[in-house]
What we know:
The chain is 27% helix and 34% strand. It is of the alpha/beta class. Strands 1-2-3-4-5-7-6 form a 7-stranded mixed sheet, sandwiched between helices. The radius of gyration is 15 Å and the shape is globular.
Amino acid sequence: MAMWDVWSIDGERRFKFPRKAVLDQIMRAEKKTFPQREALDFESELRKRNAELQVVLDGTAEDPAPVLAAYFVYSYMPKTAIMQKVCVTEKYRGQGIATRMLQLQREKLSARGCQKVHLWVDEDRMPARRLYSAAGFKELNRVDDYYGSGRTAIQMILNL
């Protein structure tokens, strides 16, 4: 089962939240944000032992229905992490949430002895590419038609 790391939008760690309601919000955001072929199957992905989920919610600790602001899914193996998904919902974009999430993950992974973080990003997703570059990721490889005909993927790596 995946580890859930949940934060409120103001950076305070949250301990109580309606898990199913949050997962439902994640799946709706996934369908809205990404093409169907790229949508992550959260039901199976989060059952994996090495899968981890970081969630940012907007609400108070007592709020019965906090709103999803962002989520981040990655797999961790000894010394290497693979980022599978970073998504900030529309309402919360441009507020530095993804930058902060990446910074927190970098600190957490470094503390665990992780040495590298890998990811793939669509060449045409410029906001995502800028985010990753600003976080220190370097372009490593390009694969034509990775996401479908005419859609190039860029492999990026962050050395910790």
